[in-house]
Amino acid sequence: MTKLKPPVEKNTYYDVIFEDLTHDGSGVAKIKGFPIFVPNGLPSEKAKIKITKVLKNYGFGRLIELYEESKFRVDAPCPIYKECGGCQLQHLSYEGQLIAKQRQVQDVLTRIGKLQDIMVHPVLGMENPWRYRNKAQVPVADREGGLVAGFYQQRSHQIIDMKSCLIQQEKNDLVVQTVKEICEKYGIQAYNEKSNKGTIRHIMARYGLVSGEIMVVLITRTKDLPHKNKLIEDITNQLPEVKSIVQNINSKQTNVIFGNETTVIWGEEYIYDNIGDIRFAISARSFYQVNPEQTKILYEKALEYAELTGEETVIDAYCGIGTISLFLAQKAKKVYGVEIVPEAIEDAKRNAALNKINNAEFAVGEAEVVIPSWYKNGIEADVIVVDPPRKGCDEALLQTILKMKPKKVVYVSCNPATLARDLRILEDGGYQTVEVQPVDMFPHTVHCEAVAKLVFNSRG
Ligand code: SAH
Fold this sequence. Notes:
Blueprint: E1 13-17, E2 20-21, E3 26-31, E4 34-39, E5 46-54, E6 59-68, H1 81-84, H2 94-111, E7 135-143, E8 146-152, E9 159-161, H3 170-185, E10 200-207, E11 214-220, H4 228-238, E12 242-249, E13 261-267, E14 271-275, E15 278-282, H5 292-306, E16 313-317, H6 323-329, E17 334-339, H7 342-354, E18 360-364, H8 367-376, E19 383-386, H9 395-404, E20 408-413, H10 416-428, E21 431-439, E22 449-456
Parallel strand pairs: 4-6, 11-12, 16-17, 16-19, 17-18, 19-20
Antiparallel strand pairs: 1-5, 2-3, 3-4, 5-6, 7-8, 7-10, 8-9, 10-11, 12-13, 14-15, 20-22, 21-22
The chain binds S-adenosyl-L-homocysteine.
């Protein structure tokens, strides 16, 4: 068979119509069926593009001129949108983003999951999709005698100063700016990646949306933090909601943010926050969802899909700090949570005790190892909830689910492509996907969260 030659060449120009949006926010145009990915192009737009790279099965292009704009195109409100790269969809109206995300889920379920006529509901979006993030992690650098705190310019190690981030809680912007200025006042030097010298590497701020409590984490190269007591005094005077100041020491020459040593240098070890009726203790290193308002909506949907009556045994695989488990425990007879990070399981146990929940048990380990061993020991679930990382569920876990045959599987996913792959496996094993509800946890970014309800189909 002769190899087909791509129908386009590098550095040539074409007039195209974008048909689709990729999962990373580029427009997709097809030239004689050959897909070209073009940053900043939106579905339905007519444009002139220049081909910048050609691979075997697809290519890349640059937007040269827009002839016809999408009705959903808007001016990105953030002045540093292009340099930052933290958001990818600000040039698309929020309405347009929700439509695109619903379509993306629908497309992969059909294309990868081979699921026909699957009910994908309109995305549950935010009423006000700005200022939602409860955690800021901001790198610091020296510049002209002072400090800058902001973000790494795309494809560089240059830190650009940022006074305000439109998807960040305003309180976190204030905390980062204030702490930066206090560090500057006492002449604290920023870490320099090249020389591996200097003190302050990152400033992290965490804000409890319901409690109003704030945690400040100073990530430093050295254990020695010059003017520590003055820093603490100024931070607590200027930011009265701060309940906890923590130092994390990272002496390695690396772009990994955190080191292994964490000490509370003032106040409490935890701040508290609530999602629905459940209270969470959040430490400096705990995983906690960054959009608590939408997290509540996501978990309520998972709970609704689980259809608990109070009699069920439930397994929550990939349980993190037990957030979903504790939500489910209120309505189930017993919940078993499993998670690979030991500290997260410690948090889960503490959070269960904090909420006086006695019917949840937690284990450390790989879900694909622990759940089969539970099954061997006679633990069977009526409902299994899974909330895996982007790579989806391990095949061994899916096979155990197919053996255990819980009446329902509730699949919470942060990656529609692996969701589709895994739903296919469960469908082939006798489950039926009843409905899928995408929830927008990360407005203005390409990330897309969805929850699927599956029931065991005895006819299958
Ligand atoms: N359900 C939680 C966390 C979901 S994030 C919440 O909503 O907050 C996915 C979690 O899976 C992470 O906490 C990660 O540490 C964990 N994880 C990753 N691989 C795992 C595995 N093989 N077995 C169990 N947990 C795993």
